[in-house]
Amino acid sequence: MNAEERMQREVRAIWATVICFCVGALLGTWELWGSPRPVAGDGSVGMPMAMVAAVIAAASFVASTQIYRRGDHDGMPRWQAVISSLSAVALTLAFAGVTALGVLLATEVLGVGLQGVELPPIGGGIVTGVASAVAGRLAFGAGVGLRTSDIADLLFGYLIIGTLFAMLTAADPRWWEQNFSQLGIGSGAWAFNGTLVVAGLLIATVGSYIGRDLHRILGDAALGRIVWVVALWSATGVALAAVGLFPLSGIVAVHNIAAVGTLVLFVVAGAVTTVAMPGPPHPLVLISIGAALLIVIAFILADVFDLFSVTVLEVIAIGIGLLWLTTLVRILAVLTPAGTRPSARQTLVRA
């Protein structure tokens, strides 16, 4: 890409930002029309702002993919194009979810620092426009050339944002004395449970993109292994979503099975992906062994020696798992050639 093309891309991104701000400001003013509203809490500007910014971010991502990746499906058989399209739909929903929770988290934090402040409709509309512009710009940039590592980073950031928001709005301020599942109980449970559902969608999408990258590296000859990789990551995402769909306030057994299943499937999917990669790369093997040892040591310290709580153990395990996943997709990015690779097979499963 030469300097002129890069400049043109930047100009389009600026126009996208301007359009997102204008549309967000207009819709925000319309949604907030009436009496001034507080920054956070019941009847605040938070939820209307979040919904408007989420819709605009999703639309910006769709517009970007139509501009820059319109020909990605050229030459692909139907099954490959369908998988790619489903991944794009999942990412669109994910960008909307990340944006909504990000705005809600920001309003909760601002509500603490700006207690007593109320925004009139036009002021709230302008703030909505700013939030929409930021989210729209990021989503537009993601649609230009989305990599698997970008989705993993999005997952990492989304889980942090969603969990922090769930903590701020938790019905029980002492939830941490037991485990993270306590955040899924009470009046504010939708924040944590919704975060898990969208995070599950993102994990399944990461798996789809991992399969895409492996196909670009290994070709049709490895489709059998790649199908297993994608299926396992999809199952991991479904299990994580089930943790949110079946919280502790419902059927406890189903919640616990989904939680344990998520952990087991994540480990199995990671192992199968590592084996499927060419090599497999020595750095990834060493990091995988190190991550497994750290989790085992943390479990022993928590369960046998009672040095820290289950909540801390969950933080350690989730953090190590996400860092390992980030490492996996970054190493995969080094090996993956640029450009699409249409399959020569007209069916995914051989007759």
Q: Name the helicity range.
A: over 70%
Low-pLDDT stretches: none
Main sheet characteristics: 2 strands, antiparallel
Give the number of DSSP strands: 2
* Spatial strand order of the main sheet: 1-2
Mean pLDDT across every amino acid position: 88
The Cα radius of gyration reads 22 Å
Q: Structural class, judged by helices and strands?
A: mainly alpha
* Strand fraction: under 5%
Measure the end-to-end span.
Answer: 42 Å
Number of helices: 10
Give the SSE order as H and E letters. Answer: HEHHEHHHHHHH
Shape: globular
Structural account:
- By secondary structure, the chain is mostly helical.
- It is 74% helix and 1% strand.
- It is built from ten helices and two strands.
- Strands 1-2 form a two-stranded antiparallel ribbon.
- Helix 7 runs antiparallel to helix 8.
- It is globular.
- It starts with a helix and ends in a 16-residue tail after the last helix.
- The model has no long low-confidence stretch (mean pLDDT 88).
Summarize this structure briefly:
By secondary structure, the protein is mostly helical. The chain is built from 10 helices and 2 strands.
Q: Topology, pairings included?
A:
Blueprint: H1 3-31, E1 37-38, H2 46-68, H3 78-113, E2 118-119, H4 121-144, H5 148-168, H6 189-218, H7 223-245, H8 252-276, H9 282-303, H10 310-335
Antiparallel strand pairs: 1-2
List keywords for this structure.
mainly alpha, two-stranded antiparallel sheet, 10 helices
